[in-house]
């Protein structure tokens, strides 16, 4: 998964130390980090991207300090996770005003930094949309997989059912099955792949989804489905 991380500190050596730690964590986790760095709060505000997942922000900087910048950014971006850097713990108390996740004391301990970022990534991944591309004859549709109720297979086409909408695409179920099953889907019938988040009831040989749709449950897949569904719900 791709995560966008921004580091803002007016000390270049500290920025580089943090980025080295982040690259090390990136390799350990097998994730992808898009890292931006800024040397001042003014530069950060001017070039800030709302794609940012984590902002590692120094409080004590010349001219505008990090807390002032955080208050401005919080008006623009409610979701970004803010992790303050400070040499003085008392400054971090103000972080509650901007709903900061926490703070790191300088000099930064690499192990502590990595542990806090690792925790934040877990929080972010739970809410971060995972999208999949569906290629039609007219172009490419990018769909958040959480909105998919189920996928239906025909001879040379698949139908993607979202809430209130169905769209057909050329292709076979096997082309997307592995990707979707990694994100909470299960193939309950040779022609149907369902989103386990959308299951509301299991009724005999049918599974009822959140929109009321009834999808057939194959007898020879029922046992594996019940095991997978139980694991997913826990």
Describe it.
This protein is an alpha/beta fold. The protein has 2 domains: 2-127, Rossmann fold, CATH 3.40.50.2300; 131-233, LytTr DNA-binding domain (OB fold (Dihydrolipoamide Acetyltransferase, E2P)). Helix content is 33%, strand content 34%. The protein is built from 6 helices and 15 strands. The chain has helices at 12-29, 41-47, 66-76, 110-127, 174-181, 219-233; strands at 2-8, 32-38, 54-58, 81-86, 102-105, 131-136, 139-144, 148-153, 157-162, 165-170, 185-189, 192-195, 199-203, 206-209, 214-216. The strands form 4 sheets. It has a 5-stranded parallel beta sheet, with helices on both faces. The protein has a 5-stranded antiparallel beta sheet with strand order 10-9-8-12-11. The chain has a 3-stranded antiparallel beta sheet with strand order 13-14-15, with no helix packed on it. Helix 1 (12-29) crosses helix 4 (110-127) and helix 2 (41-47) packs parallel to helix 3. The longest helix is centred in the first third of the chain and has 18 residues, at 12-29. The two termini are 23 Å apart.
């Amino acid at each position: 998964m791709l995560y966008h991380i921004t580091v803002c500190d007016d000390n270049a050596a500290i920025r580089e130390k943090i980025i080295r730690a982040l690259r090390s964590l990136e390799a350990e986790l097998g994730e992808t980090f898009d890292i931006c760095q800024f040397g001042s709060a003014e530069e950060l505000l001017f070039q800030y991207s709302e794609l940012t997942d984590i902002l590692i922000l120094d409080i004590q900087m010349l001219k505008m300090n990090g807390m002032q910048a955080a208050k401005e950014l919080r008006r623009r971006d409610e979701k970004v996770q803010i992790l303050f850097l400070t040499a003085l713990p008392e400054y971090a108390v103000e972080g509650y005003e901007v709903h900061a996740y926490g703070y790191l004391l300088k000099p930064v301990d690499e192990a502590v930094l990595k542990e806090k970022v690792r925790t934040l990534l877990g929080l972010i991944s739970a809410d971060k949309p995972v999208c999949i591309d569906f290629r039609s004859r007219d172009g490419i549709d990018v769909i958040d997989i959480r909105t998919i109720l189920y996928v239906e297979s025909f001879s040379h086409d698949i139908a993607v059912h979202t809430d209130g909408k169905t769209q057909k695409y050329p292709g076979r179920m096997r082309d997307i099955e592995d990707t979707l099953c990694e994100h909470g889907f299960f193939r309950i019938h040779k022609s149907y792949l369902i989103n386990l988040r959308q299951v509301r009831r299991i009724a005999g040989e049918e599974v009822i989804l959140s929109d009321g749709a009834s999808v057939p449950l194959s007898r020879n897949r029922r046992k594996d489905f019940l095991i997978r569904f139980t694991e997913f719900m826990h």
